């Protein structure tokens, strides 16, 4: 994994910015639609109350002279015809109110569907489907913003790179479903080991990244201590999960790509050292005298 090769190009930055601006525009549309629905709902209820009051007042005004004077009409209009007209108006207004409520419910349903689609698209753009962690694309955006914040305010920032050891062997011996389970369990353990303000990311394959804002380099050991002794049970078989680690603390003027590249170099330097140490310690003792003899010669 070479982060200098995987650094974002201007085209990918432009694409990401366009996608995020599209999401923000969609959110604004949702808010505008919701406010429109609320206004329509309030207007319908206010209109209903107003019309009921007016019709009640009209019926009372038409009926009162008949009660007081036994009048057959008011303003030369028969009382029966006036009441019939008022009833017709009430029926028409009720039809209008029902129509408005149907429109409001339809808009709410469309709004809910639109919101659901927006959430699905956002998750596809931000979340790794296997582990549920954030993906590389969102991590690049977040790391850029955190580096800019540290540059402006001189806040500490650390990144942590994690790479599973012998992951290919796990897939070869136990199968890819076991490998997927290892990735899921490891991702969940990483997410549990960090704070709510931190960001756990699956970069791809068996590679993970943790972005730790307001974190000093000395505090990284607390996170690594929580990741010790990870074991995954697969069909009764205990699979120990080991990983290599590299890190980098922000220094003034550093770019996200430089931080990732230096953390990557440290990770693979430590993995090479561990392999060399393991090879040396596993060397048979019977060969040591031969080496010493050959050195004397």
What would you note in describing this structure?
Residues 1-21, 71-75 and 285-297 have low confidence and may be disordered. By secondary structure, the chain is α+β, with helices and mostly antiparallel strands. It is built from 9 helices and 9 strands. Strand 1 (73-74) and strand 2 form a beta hairpin. Helix 5 (167-174) packs across helix 6 (176-193). 67% of the residues lie in helices and 15% in strands. It is elongated and about 115 Å long. It folds into 2 domains: 3-126; 134-281, Reverse transcriptase/Diguanylate cyclase domain (Alpha-Beta Plaits), CATH 3.30.70.270.
CATH topology of the largest domain: Alpha-Beta Plaits
Q: Rough shape?
A: elongated
Q: Which CATH class of the largest domain applies here?
A: Alpha Beta
Order of helices and strands: HHEEHEHEHHEEHEEEHH
Alpha-carbon distance between the two ends:
43 Å
| Oligomer state of the chains in this structure | single chain
Q: How much helix, percentage-wise, in residues?
A: 55-70%
Number of E-type strands: 9
Structural class: alpha+beta
How many structural domains does the protein architecture include?
2
Low-confidence stretches: 1-21, 71-75, 285-297
Beta-strand residue percentage: 5-15%
Question: What's the CATH superfamily of the largest domain, by name?
Answer: Reverse transcriptase/Diguanylate cyclase domain
